[in-house]
Design a protein that fits this description.
This protein is mostly helical. 86% of the residues lie in helices and 0% in strands. The termini are far apart. Its cofactor is heme.
């Protein structure tokens, strides 16, 4: 079980690191994502989880990469 937990943590951290690296390399994409999150925040205040995972650019593009 411990191995499974460590394996899952490693892949999650690698995915997040890679996503952040790509956002840093592509400021125009970072701006699109920032606008999408900002608009969601204006509509909902604190963005609920269901709304956060429904953001198209955030979820689809991240998973696609």
């Amino acid at each position: 079980m411990t191995g499974l937990i460590f394996a899952a943590m490693d892949t999650t951290s690698n995915a997040l690191s890679h996503t952040l690296f790509l956002l840093a390399k592509h400021p125009e994409v970072q701006e699109k994502l920032r606008l999408e999150i900002h608009e969601a925040h204006e509509q909902h205040g604190e963005i609920p989880h269901d709304e956060l995972v429904a953001l198209p650019y955030l979820c689809r593009e991240t998973l696609r990469l």
